[in-house]
């Protein structure tokens, strides 16, 4: 895979002899920038993408749908970028893995718990953040951006909840658990009860205050976090909602109890044009909505930047919608 950038445009080419793909009929660029490549000549595919503020972008460019072959990728970091390119290849982060034999789910499910320095023996001085998608947050802990952020991390417990282990390649079961708007309310409700009835009591033998309990996620996990926060404002004071999947406002009255939503995404995501409408809809329901957008796509580098903004936001970047 090769790319050339000029101004606010990036040209991507990819050569392959493949005639068939895992899905679609052409190589699919994923996941910061998401689109099918077009045929250029025999075995050569390409696409030209307009990317506003490209010089400030951090991107990983990869092909997602090759059959029987690893996904080739290239990294791009513009000269004006202010956030790091994040990978999962850094030092291993010590996480506590617990298996829960759930009475609500069809199979046992693992959670992955990080305990900050002051949370090893108890939670009296700590905040607890519940996230979808297992240990996917672990790389963030190798990119602590400031001493202030480290101090917040020292008082933080992070709980990542695994998706189903028997899911298909498209994550259909996971989507059912996380996306209430997808229509599978049975899967969503079972996962909701798993979190409220089993995960939280296990992590918090002595419950923390609502003020100290957060919920969060990115992509479909962001939509789940928003649904959970709106449905359970008695449990959660804050939700981290990044690059959220499909979401519909609840049809029932929402009791927000001074609920805070930390909302954001990548400006180069396919769904970025919907972010403003989503933020407005959420604010109309009553929560305060803090917004932050990163020049990037649908990827871990974007979500790392947003995670640290939400955990330890610089005062100069606060943008609140009420």
From TrEMBL:
Q: Please name the source species.
A: Caulobacter vibrioides OR37
InterPro entries according to UniProt: AB_hydrolase_fold, Esterase-like, Mycobacterial_A85_antigen
Task: Give the Pfam families listed for this entry.
Answer: Esterase
Tell me what this protein is called: Enterochelin esterase-like enzyme
